[in-house]
């Protein structure tokens, strides 16, 4: 299916909306306990249960409207369904908390495999929006690979040593801010190895 033009604001809303709703719902329900079918569920579990169909709907709409979803978005969605579902089914929030760790290990591992083969898989994902010379892609890929592994370790430390509320804040704001700051600090690479779009 060919890509379609989609309003950038709508695209951002579909990508970030479920996370914002998850955070808001958690703040509302975090201290409540719900009894369903004779089993008690913490608010976090119910919010997780609602997050799964919300992610499915938003990703489906994104695909329908734009004609495209990235491999990273598909992998993330699959892990949300699997580990979110396990958390709800087993009434154990730990499965959902492990999800970011696995996502970053998968992304970091995939980039690492490419590097071992002398390739930048990142280039194939982002070349259309971020033109760089091959050397630039390799540098950026090595750094992002290490960064993803670092985030995986950090998520493990946070959820295992901090409260659920602290982890929710970390997942909602900390991880997003970390990725934003990573790319903001790569200005030297973009400047040195960037390719002008009208070049050639």
From TrEMBL:
<feature type="transmembrane region" description="Helical">
    <location>
        <begin position="12"/>
        <end position="29"/>
    </location>
</feature>
<comment type="function">
    <text>Plays a role in cell envelope biogenesis, maintenance of cell envelope integrity and membrane homeostasis.</text>
</comment>
<feature type="transmembrane region" description="Helical">
    <location>
        <begin position="167"/>
        <end position="190"/>
    </location>
</feature>
<protein>
    <recommendedName>
        <fullName>Inner membrane-spanning protein YciB</fullName>
    </recommendedName>
</protein>
<feature type="transmembrane region" description="Helical">
    <location>
        <begin position="41"/>
        <end position="62"/>
    </location>
</feature>
<dbReference type="GO" id="GO:0005886">
    <property type="term" value="C:plasma membrane"/>
</dbReference>
<keyword id="KW-0997">Cell inner membrane</keyword>
<feature type="transmembrane region" description="Helical">
    <location>
        <begin position="74"/>
        <end position="90"/>
    </location>
</feature>
<feature type="transmembrane region" description="Helical">
    <location>
        <begin position="143"/>
        <end position="161"/>
    </location>
</feature>
<keyword id="KW-0472">Membrane</keyword>
<keyword id="KW-1133">Transmembrane helix</keyword>
<dbReference type="InterPro" id="IPR006008">
    <property type="entry name" value="YciB"/>
</dbReference>
<dbReference type="Pfam" id="PF04279">
    <property type="entry name" value="IspA"/>
</dbReference>
<comment type="similarity">
    <text>Belongs to the YciB family.</text>
</comment>
<keyword id="KW-1003">Cell membrane</keyword>
<keyword id="KW-0812">Transmembrane</keyword>
<feature type="transmembrane region" description="Helical">
    <location>
        <begin position="102"/>
        <end position="122"/>
    </location>
</feature>
């Amino acid at each position: 299916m060919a890509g379609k033009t989609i309003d950038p604001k709508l695209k951002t809303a579909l990508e970030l909306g479920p996370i914002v709703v998850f955070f808001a719902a958690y703040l509302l329900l975090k201290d409540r306990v719900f009894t369903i079918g004779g089993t008690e569920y913490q608010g976090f579990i119910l919010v997780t249960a609602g997050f799964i169909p919300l992610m499915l709907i938003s990703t489906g709409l994104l695909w329908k409207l734009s004609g495209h979803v990235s491999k990273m978005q598909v992998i993330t969605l699959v892990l949300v369904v699997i580990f979110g579902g396990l958390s709800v089914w087993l009434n154990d929030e730990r499965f959902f908390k492990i999800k970011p760790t696995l996502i970053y290990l998968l992304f970091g591992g995939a980039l690492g495999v490419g590097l071992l083969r002398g390739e930048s898989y990142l280039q194939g994902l982002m070349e259309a929006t971020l033109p760089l010379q091959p050397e630039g892609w390799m540098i950026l890929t090595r750094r992002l690979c290490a960064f993803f592994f670092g985030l995986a370790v950090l998520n493990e430390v946070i959820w295992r040593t901090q409260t659920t509320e602290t982890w929710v804040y970390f997942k909602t704001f900390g991880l997003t801010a970390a990725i934003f700051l990573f790319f903001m600090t790569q200005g030297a690479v973009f400047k040195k190895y960037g390719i002008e779009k009208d070049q050639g």
